[in-house]
Amino acid sequence: MKKTLFITQAALIAALYVVLTYVANLLGLANGAIQVRFSEALTILPYFTPAAIPGLFIGCMLSNFLTGCALWDIVFGSLATLLGALGTYALRKFKWLTPLPPIAANTLIVPFVLSYVYGVPDSIPYLMLTVGIGEVISCYVLGMLLLFVLGKYRSRIFDIGKQNA
After folding, report:
1. In the structure, what pLDDT confidence band is assigned to residue 29 with cuts at 50, 70 and 90?
2. What is the pLDDT of residues 69-79, one digit of tens each?
């Protein structure tokens, strides 16, 4: 039962990430120097369940592929999300710190992808600033809002296996 729950949660999180990225992409917010991916708010989910780690990684990989990103963006953007998710899980006992790993990982990795893969002419420090601002909006503002809303329903959403045991 635990494996099934883990796989189901991971798949649902990946699907949500893809849908939210697709919506942000339609609005012109998912790619470029300033990115506000609504899906990045989901990077707080490792606070609730370790199933979010592979879910976020796979969701980001699929999103990047489906929105037409270059191969190196698919690889390194997804790795940034994976590192962020692992960091969030590691900091899960410190609620207010949980958004920091995805913000840091994306702020440090994505500007190099934008510069070297896409040839964005802005300097790396400028791209770090713009990507960082987008990540703060996505992960800290939207992510913490999501964390507090989901926190009220934690046992109903994430601890289903414990209820049925």
Report:
1. confident
2. 899 999 999 99
- Residues 6+ away with beta carbon under 8 Å from 33: 114, 120, 122, 126, 127, 130, 131
| Alpha helices (H) along the chain | 2-26, 52-66, 71-90, 100-116, 124-135, 143-151, 154-157, 160-164
Q: Give one DSSP letter per residue of 117-137, joined into a string.
A: TT---S-HHHHHHHHHHHHII
Residues listed for the chain: 165
pLDDT in tens, 34-52: 778 889 999 999 999 999 9
CATH 2.40.128, domain 2-164, yes or no: no
Question: What is the distance between the alpha carbons of residues 157 and 106, in angstroms, rounded to a whole number?
Answer: 28
153 C-beta neighbours (distance < 10 Å), count: 10
Name the pTM for this structure.
0.90
Hey, what amino acid is at 105?
Answer: A
Domain boundaries, the chain: 2-164
Helix (H), strand (E) counts: the chain: 8, 0
C-alpha closest to that of 38 among 135, 149, 147, 158: 135
Pull the structure tokens for residue 92. Answer: 């899960």
